[in-house]
From TrEMBL:
Needed co-factor(s): Mg(2+)
Organism whose genome encodes this protein: Talaromyces pinophilus (Penicillium pinophilum)
Keyword flag Repeat: no
Designated name of the protein: Uncharacterized protein
Chain positions recorded as substrate binding sites: 97-100, 119
Keywords, alphabetical: Magnesium, Metal-binding
Length: 222
């Protein structure tokens, strides 16, 4: 079941690094970090952009894949507050564009994360719409890839990390990158974020006052 609004609100005060720290403490691989995804819009790796919301997943495959194409366009079914997470096979073609963000914004989506390429960067920024992706491109998806699944489990397109994003998992994106907070880890992770955040704040004060890092870490973190 997707995280409640109370949980999503509580996560607003934490960074992706805070989420990863908590998940690492829980033994979750790589702290839920999704490598290779960075902020492109509304500003490239700057500003205060942060998105938090349940994953609305979209699965693209090569056009010659035997799986049937999804019957309707996924963009017309995006729930309010959701983050669109698009999984694309490796291709030079973009799988997401400006009109998609226009529709997503009208549906009050929280943002879009493209595990692949997107295009119409100038339109995305003009909309002030949050987009995280691996890279940009110019060619549309037609003739190269097709959508075969919506709100289905998808695999991160990374050679160095096996990770599944499930519909409803909490996604958090900011200047540091993107992390996935699985539904079954949320209630365990939040108290750890609060505890670690408090410890780090005390460490920062002590270090500024001259305490060595090792001593501060031993005093406040352990």
């Amino acid at each position: 079941m997707p995280a409640s609004q109370d949980i999503l609100s509580a996560l607003q005060e934490y960074t992706t690094c805070d989420v990863s720290d908590a998940l690492c403490s829980l033994g979750f691989p790589h702290g839920g970090f999704l490598p290779g995804l960075k902020l492109w819009s509304p500003e490239p790796q700057q500003g205060s952009t942060k998105i938090i919301g349940p994953a609305y997943t979209v699965k693209y495959v090569p056009v010659d894949d035997p799986a049937p194409k999804h019957a309707s366009h996924y963009i017309d079914s995006v729930p309010e507050g959701a983050i669109i997470f698009i999984s694309s096979p490796k291709t030079p073609n973009a799988v997401y564009g400006g009109l998609m963000s226009t529709r997503a914004q009208a549906s009050r989506a929280a943002g879009t994360i493209v595990d692949g390429r997107f295009r119409d960067l100038q339109e995305q920024r003009a909309l002030n719409y949050p987009v995280f992706a691996r890279d940009v491109g110019t060619a549309p998806p037609y003739g190269a890839v097709k959508v075969v699944g919506v709100n289905v489990p998808i695999q991160l397109q990374s050679d160095g990390q096996e990770l599944t994003i499930n519909p409803g998992d909490c996604l958090v994106g900011d200047l540091n990158g993107v992390v996935v907070l699985p539904q079954d880890q949320v209630k365990k992770a939040l108290p750890l974020m609060a505890k670690q955040g408090e410890a780090d704040a005390k460490m920062a004060v002590a270090i500024k006052e001259g305490m060595p890092f090792t001593e501060a870490s031993r005093k406040f973190r352990i």
